[in-house]
Amino acid sequence: MALKPNKKTQAASNAKSEKVKKPKVQQTHSGGKGTLWSRINPVTSVGSKLFLFFFLSICLIVSIVGWQSYTTSKDIITKEVSKSSHQTIIQVREKLGMVYDSFEATTLQFILDDAYSERVSDLVDVLGDQGANQYEKLQVTKTLEETMLNIILADSRIDSLSFISTDGTLLVSTDTLNVKKGLAEEDWFQKATELDGRPYWAGTRKGGFISEQGIDTFALTRLVKNKMSGETYGVILMELKLSVIGDQLNNIQLGETGSKYVIDENHQIVFAANPDLIAQSTDLLKNVKKTDRLSDTETVTREDGEELLLVYDQSPSNNWTVASTIAISELTESTSEIANITTIMLLVSIVLALLVGFIMVKLVAAPLSNLRNLMNEGERGNLAVRTKVKTKDEIGQVGESFNRMMEEITKLVVATNQSASDVLDTAVHLSTVSKNTAISAKEITLATEQIAEGASTLAVEAERGNEITNHFSQQMNKVVDSNQELGVSAQQIQRAGEKGSHHMAELITKTNTTEEMTRAMVARVDRLKENTSSIQKVLDVLHNMTKQTNILSLNATIEASRAGAAGKGFMVVADEIRNLADQSRQNIDVVGQITLSILTEMEETASALAEAYPLYQEQLASVKDASDIFTNVQSEMQSFVESLDETTQSIEQLNRSQQTLSEAMSSVSAVSEESSATSEEVASLSGQQQSASEGLVELAEKLEGLSKSLQESLNRFKTE
């Protein structure tokens, strides 16, 4: 019989159907006084990051460009000044070289010029002649001295000329005041002797080379020899005024504070604008790169830490170096304007960066913050939130995607809620059917037990009838002797036959009832299988819905990953939906397994009932046969009573009837035992059916609990 849902189930189903309606969409958009700043975390906000990016980028670029411009202009100015200064120094060195060459040519006349050479030779000869008188000596000395004076008068740059013998004795000099002693020990004298006629330039000496109280001079020395015989006469010493170098260096101006020097090969200052530095040792050229001829520009650091531009060029005539130093700070003084402009532009760029950063925060951070808050609302279960899209850029597209996603999730939750309601109704209906099936199984068990008791009683009665028949056989041997006793026995047999017929009628009635109940139970099990199949269909629908939910959550995850950092909240919602879909799928799988188990138990019950049904029919046929036998026995016993007088004559026929009766009673006993065993088996099957029905009730209650759990999980989402 078909089961109808109770009133509570129908009312709950109607209430849930009325509750699931089209959600009311809550439109939300960014705005308000506190929206931009009160909801933004300055540490993690993308607006703050963009602001810092633009601010630092602009400031860094302006600073780098300004500093690069400053250093580049400084380097360019330094290089250009270095080139021009180097060219100037080279020109000065070339002029000084020509001056050096002219003085060397003058001293060379004492070797190459016959007149000069002859006077020197005469002087040496006369002074070396022991027989020469004083007048001759004075005469040759005066002749050479006049020659030297003429040279000095011809060139005012020459301070004095002196001729010294090889033993260091001053023979002739234009400066005879306070003559120094030990000239042969002077380094310049030894150097001139070693060079064997080649010129040697001696650096500046304080007070001069010959006189102890003269002016500061530098000198050119040369060993004078006979050009023909190679005889050595002595050393010619030409002292030159410092104005020879000063006139050339003073004509150039390298910066306001530039210093100019002439340094000999021993790192002694030959000339400097500061008189105190003349004849002093200097380290200015000690660290320069050693080459065949020093000529270059370098940057050096003074003891006080100031950087200087060093320009130098070495003269090939005497290896003296013309050098000049210029303070780099003086050269790059004009570049300070670039530094000032850079500072001003940096301040302007800071203001511009602040303005751009504020605009970026306004355009990016505020919409993203609003979208994040809406996603948090969606994460808490409020599916009715929507964002009001105003722009068509990427942020606007993300907002539209968020709205479409929330609409799809809302539809999915509504559909899932409806399906959960249907599953709950089906579970309630299944629970009711299971309970009714359990009650029917109990009734079948009781009826089967009654059938088993009736079959047992029939077996007992059949055994008793068999004993009576045996007793009747014994009495038949005595029937000739005691006919009266035979009549009494016949009457007892007649009563026993009536009683057996009565019991057989009851057995037939109970067997018919058992057959009808078994047929009804088979029909109920078939209907229960149909209901279980409908549950399986509902589970298939729910399984498909979970698949669609997984696909939708996967699409949402992909869209969130495309959105990057802006889609992190969106991705959290998608993960929650995917977890919910997985939980629903697992619950549906559990319900499907339970339903499949119920269906298997029903099929086994139906199979057992189908096997028991033919046994019931065989039992019914056997009972009818036994009833016919009892009827025949009763008829025969009545005939036996009526023809008791003819018993003696028909004793042989009675014996045969007794044998037939004995066999029939044996058959009845066997049939009764078989009916009892069949009844016990049916009772066992009924017990199994009752256990299966109780299990079905438990599974139905579990399905109902899972449906409620699913509905509670869905109720956390607000669609209105």
UniProtKB/TrEMBL annotation:
Residues 362-414 form the HAMP domain. The keyword Transmembrane helix applies. Residues 433-683 form the Methyl-accepting transducer domain. It holds the Pfam family HAMP. It is found in: Cell membrane. Its main location: membrane. InterPro entries: dCache_1 (IPR033479), HAMP_dom (IPR003660), MCPsignal_dom (IPR004089). This is Methyl-accepting chemotaxis protein. Keywords: Cell membrane, Chemotaxis, Membrane, Transducer, Transmembrane, Transmembrane helix. The keyword Lipid metabolism does not apply. SUPFAM superfamilies: Methyl-accepting chemotaxis protein (MCP) signaling domain. It is a multi-pass membrane protein. Belongs to the methyl-accepting chemotaxis (MCP) protein family. It comes from the Bacteria. The chain crosses the membrane at residues 50-70, 344-365. Residues 671-686 have a biased composition (Low complexity). Residues 1-33, 671-691 are annotated as: Disordered.
